[in-house]
Amino acid sequence: MRNEDCFSFNVKKISSNLFLCELLNTSKFLDSENLMRDENFAHWYLQEPCSPSPCEKHGKCVVNSDGTAGSCKCFEKYEGKRCEIRIFDDPNFNFALNKPTSQKTRPNGGWKAVDGNRNPAWSSGSCTATQTLPRITDPQWWRVDLGEEIPLSRVVITNRGDCCGARLGNFAIKIGNSLDNDGLSNPTCAGDNLSVPTGQTKTFVCTPWIRGQYLVVQSYVNDVLTLCEVEVYAYTMKMIV
Fold first, then answer.
1. pLDDT in tens, 40-78
2. How many domains does the chain have?
3. Which residue, 239, 59, 57, is CA-closest to 149?
4. Are residue 60 and residue 117 in the same domain, yes or no?
5. Which structural domain range is residue 141 located in?
6. Rounded distance, CA 5 to CA 228, Å?
7. Average pLDDT over residues 9-32
């Protein structure tokens, strides 16, 4: 018997050659409270090929023409049977550009370090600064959320040029997926005690590469933390996500 509205059904054997069937529509199946409660019933249902979707969140499940199976149509930069492989194919793509930022103090000003402007002059309006008053008694930090986990290869940082270059005289770059301790407990890229000369742009290479979503610049100087630009680049590779 064919019934277009039937999504599932219950079957109960009454006698040797007699069965009682209860046809269920989709809403009844999805809401188990509407199902007939009887331990003698066996429940059968038609499997929806794309429910749940096998494509994770990186693709769209498409049902084939006869409705018996589904396959994943992956979004751009993803591949694999379940779209589980992320393709990183552009070594010059800046993953930090215009991404959400935060910092220990003055949290709303961190975006200036990811606006795509390397101008090292404070007057350009493109350099960050953490709080200056009251007097700073502990090191400052700045963080960017890259929006996804990437295989990070290098970080490019531009220091202020018209003043106060020593503020980037001793810092570390932390990368990982944890926000515990503001992300400061994540692995370190390129070692500790890093520095960028006044007004210059310097590249720090992560060897070996580190995968992570959050990048933190942690200052070891008890002073204002100023960054005129932070750029983040990935290795060209395919990574299971």
1. 766 665 667 787 888 988 999 998 887 778 899 999 999
2. 2
3. 239
4. no
5. 101-234
6. 62
7. 69
